Amino acid sequence: MIVSVQGPIVSTASQTLVLPHALPLDGGGELARVEIAYETYGTLDADRSNAILLCHALTGDQHVASPHPVTGKPGWWQRMVGPGKPIDTDRFHVICANVIGSCMGSTGPASDAGDGNPHAMRFPVITIRDMVRAHVGLLDTLGIARLHAVVGGSMGGMQALSLAANWPERAERVLVIASTSRHSAQNIGFHELGRQAIMADPRWQGGDYYGGEAPENGLAVARMAAHITYLSEEALTAKFGRNLQDRPDGSKGAKTFGFDADFQVESYLRYQGSGFSRRFDANSYLYITRAMDYFDLAEEHGGRLADAFAGTTARFCLVSFDSDWLYPTAESRHVVHALNAAGAAVSFVELSAPHGHDSFLLDVPALDRVVEGFLG
Amino acid sequence: MTLRADLAVIADHVAPGSRVLDIGCGDGALMLALREKQCDVRGIEIDGASVERCVAQGLSVVQGDADRDLRDYPDKGFDYAVLSQTLQTAVRPDRMLDELLRVGTRAFVSFPNFAHWRTRAALMFGGRMPVTRSIPVSWYETQNIHHVTISDFRDLAREKAATIERDWYFASRGPIGRTGANARAEFAVFELSR
Fold first, then answer.
1. Among A9, A37, A163, B158, which residue's Cβ finds the most Cβ atoms within 10 Å?
2. CATH number of the domain bearing residue A212
3. Which Pfam families does the UniProt record give (chain B) (predicted)?
């Protein structure tokens, strides 16, 4: 159940199932009664061989090609997923599940802990592999032994890599877009900034804010900082430059010699921050960013990334964007080198796009061609 | 689409079902031909647009620089390593040859022959760096930083203790014999082992 998000909840194609077993966790212990919220598109073949698992990013959800229940906005990969689109739902059975730890229907800190109260900070710290373990539980329940492909961008790419490394028999193809095999110091640094902003909000209350006012200001600041990392200097300059924001009364923008949002970029980031606060749970943000920071696929496999993929028979495709400074091309190359060393069939291309990390969600026709071609 | 002559030779002489690494695979023409022969083909290509076209055709191609990225591939991971019209662009062709014979049991190498009579004539009588059909770009913008002749390549193979298993020579009209090839051939294809 979603406890904290505000605004009207409209109905979607989203379904929820409860995993039939407790979920063992990397941090020790297990999570009982795990709920997974997911959506499916397209028809599953009789031989169950045409399923594609899409893994969403940090603040994404299962609404990949259906309206978001809070904002009413189109699904986050509507341009990529649908009939006749690069991920063609006329041919493939597409599954997208909300990760555990999130707040869109899968079990997370806002979910009931079984005692009538939300877990809040009693929720265990989870890892990317825990999220994937939950996905595998979902696939088991749905009776899908082997995926045609697992696909993900950003944190979704981490899940795709984790599935390929830890459950190598489960996917024939692995498509990883704008992602990494480990979080860098810079990545961790930005996440820590966001977490500290949330925890510094007096409404956070040690995470026990459910039923009261959520730490929306802290979460908004976290989102503003993160949003900058998703763009590029070029994109920000092209979109806003040093342009001034028109005043609320309609008069022309001017420097106010105060601390209002004089610049358009300030106004934009405030809007992004407050919008995000209305649709996302602050504690989920803490837990999911932590899972990303802990992600280091080589560390899980004795320190050598190639060993994570030893013996794999899957085909891999990695895509980076030249303007992405959050997970720059070097991170994808690092994975490609490991896959080459493991003798895996791998494709890699750096695409040129001006939008920074967010390019994977935006209109980049070359990405469409690569995705469609790779999925075959 | 007809394959370029050197690629056609290579495609004809790779055993069906082999594992092949095509270094500098361009738009994937050879890879597609080898896929028809049930080969497991991988490619390396520096140009992003070419890589994108390859991946869109379902080929496994990595965007990368052969001078730098070959070292990640395991020893003898492939039955054949192919280097077509790329040797002369390598920073160190000698090391590239070592790498080819490390990652592949056998190697195919093709290159334009700088000792072709047209090239010699252009240099001797024109006094300027030749621009010919097989070397079509001016000296200042060519990627060919290490021009090589057929005799030079044979010497390098000997120095590197590589065995020339088979060799093919082409003039403008088509294949020619080995005799006088260093002056008569526009380009050559060698199959090497070690």
1. A163
2. 1.10.1740.110
3. MetW
